[in-house]
Q: What sequence folds into this?
């Protein structure tokens, strides 16, 4: 076997082939470093004196199904400049690692297409070994993402397990990458992020968030003067909740009346957009009948549909006129839940209208949340919270596709 084959097959540069052996299904190559590697690992000086040898066993990329090990015999050196005895830098592996850099790259390439357990079974190593390699890679790439170029961010939380366990996420809306993961869902979860953001001296143009008072207060305190943009989905969802409340109240009031059955099972019909109603299930007719029998419900439904039109106005001025008119009609409707939502929208007015200056939303965050849930299901949960957070911060590079 030639030294050039070691270079082309295993990426070993600066080593001489000594011998090979086959033990218990493993391929073992004995190699020695060439003279150009015999230098001080600290200062790089070649003025060294050999002081014995050390031996390292390193796992490298396999040959077919056969595991391959490198048995490296290398000298210790005493540097005349540093006056210290040290092991030389082997270049092909990091200190205190049992595998080469080539093996690490091979494992990482497999994890893009296979589960970590499948990679471990294929290579004949422990699952924790694959996890360790993957975790170190994620830590290097995403452990401390730069924040200086942030302009538009979104803030949201995700439930990670039962018992009200949450994580707070901050996303860079330009790249789609999660740049921070905090424990919990209150303002306290964002404290480490604000400290890092301040040190980075980033200039945030706008923040997209839901209607959480904790996040609103945190942004206003730590980013004074930066516009808040409330997400379309959460604003309409708030109105949908009030519409459901009106329907339930009406259903309770119509006790022992034949018309009561008309309202039964109409919740999702009322919440659907009109263009999504299914003709084959008779949903348009069910909706028409439910609205016909009760005026407050009909009023709330049509105002819900009007609320969706706020984001389709020609400009911010027209949107402001439209929203003010909507709020005025809601607060004077005499319908309790509708009056409450009218006052709520008055408080959120600027955040809703800021969309015309900064057309952003936390929609990409919702897509990321779905990816996280898929990843969590595939792994049957994560016991290592730090590893889970690193996976989240690298999830924008993950690709999920349907099969079958």
A:
């Amino acid at each position: 076997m030639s030294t050039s084959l070691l270079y082309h097959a295993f990426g070993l540069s600066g080593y001489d082939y000594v011998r090979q052996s086959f033990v218990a299904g493993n391929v073992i190559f004995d190699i020695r470093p060439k003279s150009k590697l015999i230098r001080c690992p600290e200062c790089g000086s070649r003025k060294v004196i050999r002081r014995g040898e050390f031996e390292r066993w390193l796992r490298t990329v396999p040959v077919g199904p056969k595991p391959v090990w490198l048995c490296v015999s290398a000298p210790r050196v005493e540097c005349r400049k540093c006056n210290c005895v040290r092991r030389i830098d082997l270049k092909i592996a990091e200190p205190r690692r049992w595998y080469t850099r080539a093996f690490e790259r091979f494992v990482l390439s497999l994890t893009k297409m296979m589960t970590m357990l499948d990679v471990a079974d294929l290579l004949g190593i422990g699952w924790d070994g694959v996890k360790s390699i993957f975790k170190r890679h994620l830590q290097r790439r995403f452990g401390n993402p730069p924040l200086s170029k942030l302009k538009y961010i979104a803030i949201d939380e995700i439930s990670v397990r039962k018992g009200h366990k949450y994580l707070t996420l901050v996303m860079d809306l330009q790249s789609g990458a999660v740049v921070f993961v905090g424990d919990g869902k209150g303002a306290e979860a964002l404290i480490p992020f604000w400290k890092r953001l301040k040190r980075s001296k980033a200039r945030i143009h706008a923040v997209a968030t839901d209607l959480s008072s904790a996040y609103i207060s945190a942004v206003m305190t730590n980013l004074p003067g930066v516009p808040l943009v409330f997400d379309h989905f959460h604003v309409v969802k708030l109105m949908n909740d009030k519409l459901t409340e009106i329907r339930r109240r009406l259903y309770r009031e119509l006790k022992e009346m034949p018309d009561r059955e008309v309202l039964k099972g109409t919740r999702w019909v009322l919440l659907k957009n009109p263009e999504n109603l299914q003709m084959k299930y008779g949903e348009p007719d069910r909706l028409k009948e439910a609205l016909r029998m009760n005026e407050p419900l009909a009023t709330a439904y049509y105002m819900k549909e009007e609320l969706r039109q706020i984001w389709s106005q020609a400009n911010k001025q027209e949107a402001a006129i439209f929203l003010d008119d909507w709020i005025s009609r809601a607060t004077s409707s005499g319908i309790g839940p509708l009056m409450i939502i009218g006052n709520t929208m008055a408080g959120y007015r600027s955040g809703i209208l800021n969309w015309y200056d900064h057309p952003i939303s936390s929609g990409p965050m919702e897509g990321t949340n779905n990816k996280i849930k898929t990843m969590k299901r595939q792994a049957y949960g994560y016991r290592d919270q730090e590893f889970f957070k690193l996976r989240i911060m690298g999830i924008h590079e993950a690709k999920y596709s349907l099969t079958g």
Residues 232-356 form one domain.
